[in-house]
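Please decode residue identities from the backbone states below.
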């Protein structure tokens, strides 16, 4: 039976043995033949290309060169000797190094023979070298099979390399596994799809990504795996979505009652934008539909998401349910608490805030009134998802700036009361279309594509460090007109101490230029206690402080409409979406606002690209696209912290067409066969259940 060999441990493969098997398990989670086959190369190197040595740069990774050896020389201390050689062609020369086991080298290679050398460039003190490269004679090079000329490169780890398991070794192991398995893998995609998309079957595809026989089939094979990944992801999302809309929930908000109406007619002191009205209607329809709401509210910074969330909360309360609002930072939670408390001050509702800083008696009280149902709206940070937080009847969970939370945290929240909870997630960071397709596939999406009236586009400028006087003059003028300003400094973990010193120095310089009592300047950073931060933020939002010198603790959500200047120091050190978020702190009122980026004279290409994008557009979607191109998806999603959304074979920037296509097909399949019960779809169903287990709605009925 085919499965038997696939589930066999790799210990049986020639050259692996139990020690290496243990290592491969630990480092790469490879245990069985199947795991090994599924370990796809992350790229292929075209060894038909031979680089002139003179053209190599520190940017290159795998290179192949051809030429002659000149000198061999043993250097280094007695116990750490190494062999170095010079290898040259007509264009230049490079050092080749062997750190151990090199006695054979000088015997084997002659200075009169031409060799082909392949390896990964190392860089030491700006100089490139090759260590322990693969070296072939001309005859050997000519005899390389296609798979040798189009060589798969596998990711390895330092530990593996120390134990002599490099990309080449992995390739050998896989080749043995392929021989053993030969054609016995069970097909995972329906035949009709393989035919219509002209994709190779699973066995052919695995053989050809690992040991390609020609470029075309390699290409189709890679495409197959990328398509398969995208299809599964989308299918799961679309099927979950369809099932959500067919599974009744007991939480139905049938009416819009006095709380909503009295807020809408009395407390709200501005006219909603058309977009806000439309989205509120969409949410209202969801909440009353008898099915669970799972909606994403996407709207650029300043588009007015909070008030929409507020109205959703009031509908919940009108129907006797509690609402929680979760924000990613304490400052933001506090601000929401202040805003919402003010809005509903006449409504006789109980609103509380719960963050990690609220402890002891106060915390106990809050927990108790959450459980007995006397609190209507609880606002907080991720402290809300701790297991000690028990609701009386949570009906709606709102998550602000959701891109700051991991999927796990969101999932935890949805188990708080009941799986049937309505959720509204809000995000200000517009994300590129492909990314939205992949990660929000099972959410309904509402978009606030309109800013409140009277907003003027923020004017963005860039100055070099030595031109900062212009920034200060602009700020002075704005303050004289009664406005306020932010000055933001970068702060990252690695250079935290220095960054905080820079912040202090910057603060002192501002105080010198803008002295008391005419001006008041505040300072804020993450190391301050919550009370201190609240104090500073409060003075700023009440307009007492003119200038707030701060780290990125104010990056998301902070809303002080009177602030009209955002100065960003060392702007080159910020990511694009961070810059966009920071800029979004101004331009929230009716008057003209300014964002001034200050940067060093030495900018990397990436930094230039980011800053140029900021000067060119204020459109969050365009910024998101540019960000994706500059950084790649991993950083954008902050995947490293949350562990979500790690794609196996997909690269969003490269595979947009594949993802779009897979989405369309997934949609068709989900509509026509939502239980995947047609015979041709059983393979997909099996795969989805084994891959996603609990996160897939068909798992329970499987
Ligand atoms: P974001 O979408 O960035 O979370 P907020 O909800 O903080 O935006 O709203 C930004 C500012 O605009 C707030 O001061 C809010 O009170 C105000 N605002 C929201 N909607 C409107 C509107 N329709 N008309 C005028 N001002 C509005
Ligand atoms: Mg907001």
């Amino acid at each position: 039976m085919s499965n038997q060999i696939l589930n066999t441990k790799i210990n049986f493969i020639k050259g692996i043995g139990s020690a290496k098997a243990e290592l491969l398990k630990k480092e790469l989670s490879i245990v069985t033949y199947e795991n090994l086959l599924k370990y796809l190369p992350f790229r292929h190197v075209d060894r038909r290309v031979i680089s002139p040595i003179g053209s190599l740069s520190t940017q290159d990774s795998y290179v192949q060169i051809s030429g002659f050896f000149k000198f061999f020389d043993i250097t280094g201390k007695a116990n750490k000797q190494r062999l170095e050689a010079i290898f040259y062609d007509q264009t230049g020369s490079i050092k080749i190094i062997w750190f151990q086991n090199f006695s054979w080298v000088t015997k084997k290679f002659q200075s009169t023979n031409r060799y082909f050398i392949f390896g990964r460039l190392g860089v030491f003190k700006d100089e490139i070298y090759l260590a322990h490269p693969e070296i072939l004679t001309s005859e050997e090079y000519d005899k390389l099979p296609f798979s040798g000329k189009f060589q798969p490169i596998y990711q390895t780890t330092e530990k593996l390399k120390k134990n002599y398991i490099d990309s080449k070794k992995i390739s050998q192991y896989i080749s043995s596994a392929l021989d053993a398995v030969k054609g016995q893998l069970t097909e995972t995609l329906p035949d009709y799809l393989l035919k219509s998309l002209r994709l190779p079957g699973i066995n052919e595809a695995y053989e050809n990504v690992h040991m390609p026989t020609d470029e075309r089939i390699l290409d189709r094979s890679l495409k197959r795996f990328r398509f398969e990944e995208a299809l599964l992801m989308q299918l799961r999302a679309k099927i979950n979505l369809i099932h959500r809309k067919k599974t009744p929930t007991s939480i139905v908000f049938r009416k819009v009652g006095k709380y909503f109406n009295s807020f809408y007619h009395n407390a709200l002191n501005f006219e909603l934008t058309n977009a806000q009205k439309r989205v509120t209607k969409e949410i209202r329809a969801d909440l009353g539909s008898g099915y669970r709401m799972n909606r994403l509210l996407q709207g650029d910074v300043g588009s007015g998401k909070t008030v929409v969330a507020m109205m959703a909360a009031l509908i919940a309360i009108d129907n006797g349910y509690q609402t929680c609002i979760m924000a990613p930072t304490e400052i933001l939670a506090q601000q929401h608490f202040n805003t919402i408390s003010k809005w509903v001050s006449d409504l006789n509702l109980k609103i509380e805030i719960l963050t990690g800083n609220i402890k002891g008696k106060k915390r106990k009280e809050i927990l108790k009134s959450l459980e007995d149902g006397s609190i209507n709206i609880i606002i907080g940070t991720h402290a809300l998802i701790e297991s000690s937080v028990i609701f009386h009847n949570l009906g709606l969970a709102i998550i602000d700036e959701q891109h700051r939370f991991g999927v796990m945290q969101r999932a935890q929240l949805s188990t708080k009361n009941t799986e049937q909870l309505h959720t509204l997630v809000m995000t200000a960071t517009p994300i590129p279309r492909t990314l939205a397709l992949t990660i929000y596939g099972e959410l309904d999406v509402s978009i606030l594509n309109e800013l409140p009236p009277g907003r003027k586009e923020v004017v963005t400028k860039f100055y070099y460090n030595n031109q900062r006087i212009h920034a200060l003059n602009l700020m002075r003028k704005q303050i004289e007109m009664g406005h306020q300003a932010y000055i933001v400094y970068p702060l990252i973990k690695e250079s935290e101490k220095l960054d905080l010193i820079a912040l202090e120095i910057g603060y002192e310089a501002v105080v010198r230029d803008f002295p008391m009592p005419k001006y008041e300047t505040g300072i804020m950073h993450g190391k301050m206690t919550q009370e201190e931060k609240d104090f500073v933020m409060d003075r700023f939002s009440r307009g007492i402080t003119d200038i707030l010198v701060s780290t990125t603790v104010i990056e998301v959500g902070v809303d002080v409409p009177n602030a009209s200047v955002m100065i960003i120091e060392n702007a080159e050190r910020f990511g694009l979406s961070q810059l966009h978020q920071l800029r979004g702190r101004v331009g929230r009122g009716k008057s003209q606002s300014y964002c001034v980026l200050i940067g060093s004279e030495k900018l990397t290409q990436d930094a230039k690209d980011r800053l140029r994008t900021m000067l060119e557009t204020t459109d969050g979607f365009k910024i998101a696209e540019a960000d994706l191109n500059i950084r790649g998806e991993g950083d954008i999603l902050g995947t490293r912290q949350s562990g979500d959304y790690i794609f196996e074979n997909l690269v969003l920037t490269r595979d947009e067409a594949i993802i779009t296509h897979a989405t369309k097909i997934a949609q068709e399949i989900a509509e026509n066969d939502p239980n995947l019960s047609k015979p041709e779809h059983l393979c997909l169903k099996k795969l989805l259940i084994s891959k996603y287990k609990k996160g897939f709605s068909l798992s329970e009925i499987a």
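Observation: The pocket of adenosine-5'-diphosphate (ligand 1) is lined by residues 270-273, 276, 299, 301-307, 428, 452, 559, 561, 588 (CB under 6 Å).
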